[in-house]
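Researcher: Quick one. two chains, 659 residues in total.
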Amino acid sequence: MEFIYYFGNVFEPVAFMLLLVGTIGGLILGATPGLSPTMAVALLIPFTFHLEAVQGLILLGAAYTSTVAGGAVSAILLKIPGAPANIATTLDGHTMAKKGEGAKALQLSFLASAVGGVFGVLLLIFLTPLLAQWALAFGPSHLFWLAILGVTIIGSLDSASVVKGLLSGCIGLWLATIGFDDIMGAQRFIFHDSLGGGINIIAALIGLFAIPQVLTMFAKGRQGDGVEVITVQKHSIKDAIKILLGSKRAMAIGTSVGSIIGLIPGVGGQIAGLVAYDQSKKFSPDREKFGTGHPEGVIAAESANNAMVGPSLVPLLTLSIPGSPTAAVLLGGLLIHGIFPGSDLFDNHPDVAWTFINSMLIGQVLMCIFGLYVAGLAAKVAQVPQSVMAAVVLGLSVFGAYSVQSSMGDVYVMMSLGVMMFFLERFGFSAAPLVLGLILGPIAEANFIQGSMIASATDGVGSYFLSGGLNIILIGTVVASIIYSVVMELRQHRITNTPNEETQV
Amino acid sequence: MSTMSRTQHIIPSGIIFAVGGWITWISYTQEPAEAFLFPRLISTAFVLLAGWTFVKALLGWSKIGSGITRSMAINLFPGLVISLIYVFWAAKALGFYTASAIGFFVLLSLYDPAPHSEMKSWIKRGVITACFVAVMYGVFAMLLKVYTPREILF
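Model:
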């Protein structure tokens, strides 16, 4: 119950103001199609340099929570999911809006998001310290395998192609080795002066998540948005609460599915929403109503995608393995403030850890309150033309990357990685494992070198890294995640047995 | 799968395989060897996976990814070129705010669906550009105290 002692910190003026800014800004950013939660958090990181670590994390955490919820606004009113996590919300949410129940759908979505989100953060509060203590038993070989596990699990589960996912992870791990070697001081892969200090994580994150979005918007050309905006009519919040209380099954399914999926590293909110929607439909006596504007569809999907947020931080805060791409960006945010996840975080920086987690709990409530009032404004922002959005994001990316160390080199790296990622994504590669490789690369290398030194003085490298219960469990999990993904990929290929859309230049 | 779409898979996977081969060669030939211990491990996995991806593309087994269509390439090209000029030349040569104003206005004008023949839409683009640069200046120069390279105009 240590977290209770740090509740007061959230209500300190600056911290609370940042929580409000992050929540309201996140709702608006989340509602904007094309601005994913990961990209929003990556673009916000440069703004946290001048803040204390805990303040920066509050801002990023609030933005993470509310961008996921804010994505429901455009999903319901415009039939464009603000983020992949909101895909399932469009199924019933937009149909409700077309039937004149837009306000009801929005209210249900924010209320369900808050309930799911609070449950998810409570899970984070109670599971994290236990796992963090367990992490104390980890030596260099275990930490090395954990870092590799983080890359392989996201590489295999988050990508359409297992080989391309793992290759993306390898590219990230290699990029992390660029620069001067920490032990020998040797130059490695420094092909340009900009790379002398290695690749800056924040510049890379901005480039890898923001620039491909900008180029995707350019690739759509001068098309008018042509989006039909549905006017929101008034609806009593009391009625919405009554409907929510009457939809306990959908709430329970959404919240539990979202929480479990959040705990599995690499599986994102998109899957949480869709699985919860599907399970709610299966267990509902009114399953034929799903897809026709049924409130339970919105409740299941939205409670799931927000319930996923808290648990996705459990492996991040305890074992340095982000549960989602956005959590990977948050890891970058932690590292730049010199804070390392794991027992160190809870033993040496309990104020930072608990204030951040508590702020996410309060943030869920604020997100619900503001969501109900900001939805109208967010829907207007969602209609900002893509031409404006692309130019704004490009400008923000350039300034954001430069502001990290006032270096043009970071801007060049940001742009180069962004353009490369755009083309890689077109050919089935994914940014998430690449980012994980880049972030976890130094952790993997440091522990590999340390482990090799210990091993050469004791049992030998092979024995040190490949034997012992924990090592075998971790290696087994790495192998199992890859085999599982290969089997699923082959099965999917057999079921569809139709080639993907192949296009030509 | 058509020949062209196979080519689309072969080119990027070939480039990645070549990069993989190159970094593997560097990792195994550069000294001191201790500094390249981890890169050797990574580059070996890299080149094996890249090789497999390249072979799959050659055999026409690559199915994942939607590639780039002709219309997409035509739409993308001017925006990409302007973005690259903005980042790699103009930002430093003209200064961040001047380059951003020009880059923003050109990109907005290129991709704005509003007609180019109307004076009203040009004024609107100008106003949006001015607002954007003012906000960027307010946030980065005044609030965050980020000192950007000296401007050509000030």
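Chain B touches chain A through 75 residues (CB under 8 Å).
Researcher: Thanks, that's what I needed.
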